Amino acid sequence: MNKNILVQTENLNKRYRDTLVLDNVNLSIEKGKIYALIGQNGAGKTTLIRILTGLSFQSSGEVELFSKKGIKELEKQRKRIGSLIEGPTLYSSMTAYENLEAERICRGIPNKENIEKVLKLVGIDKIGRKKVKDFSLGMKQRLGIAMALLNNPELLILDEPINGLDPMGIIEIRDLIQNLNEKKGITIIISSHILSELYQLATNYIIIDKGRILENITLGQLDEKCKKHIAIKVNDVPLATTVIENNLNTSNFKVMDDGTIKLYDHLDKVSEVSSILSQNGLIIMQITILGDSLEDYFVQLIGGKFND
């Protein structure tokens, strides 16, 4: 039993009639991190989130929450999860406090004092009797997150929380999410199609396409993959590294497991690098500049155009 693993899925499948929406999803979510769930519309993001939160059920496979499994145990453990899925359901003629009180009663959460705490936490504690109908979209999203925080969750799951927000609203929600993670220690799963914002926010990245997990990597690993470099494949790697060090006067490169050399210098001198390698008796099988933004990396990984 690993107490640092909050969520684990094993061979998770979800089928709607003849359509396989989730295909053998194996996933681990570790305590204290922010996970970005990235995928096109219809990739399976929301279906996965709905299964984790108990709003839907898998066709086969297993879900484990906080090291517990089984229908009754999962029901108990989901009380340790807060979620905002497909936007908050709000009463427009009521205040933020009244909406939270209605949510608290509906969910059977005993601590009424939590309402003031979460209002302060999300930064809408000083708006008085203002009705929700007069809220900006950003304020409504903050209230939705406050609802998800009412039960003091250890895991917070947010589905498209910055969708439709203006640039300032995006920054405010991003800062709020980081604060919840860093100061409150809440583990967070966030799905969004605004990839540039996820790159500034998450510590881990889960890329899903056509119901399959293509990658589950850390920010450091993603930076390594996205960092611009000259990717070189040659017939003699040890000789190539010697030539790079002696003739190009740099040690700023890395040899990968498959023998590819990633050269981080001389990015504007690819032809010169190619000539020097060839002049030293090396056969070049590939030499190209790779690495770019998260969005470019995502598009390359799924092999097509990103549809947001």
TrEMBL record:
Keyword field: ATP-binding, Nucleotide-binding, Transport
Alphabetical list of InterPro entries matching this protein: AAA+_ATPase, ABC_transporter-like_ATP-bd, ABC_transporter-like_CS, P-loop_NTPase
MF GO annotations: ATP binding; ATP hydrolysis activity
Keyword Transport set for record: yes
Domain ABC transporter: 7-235
Keyword Nucleotide-binding: yes
Lineage top rank: taxon: Bacteria
Protein family per UniProt: Belongs to the ABC transporter superfamily.
Cross-referenced PANTHER family: ABC TRANSPORTER, ATP-BINDING PROTEIN
Entry protein name: ABC-2 type transport system ATP-binding protein
Lineage, highest ranks first: Bacteria, Bacillati, Bacillota, Clostridia, Eubacteriales
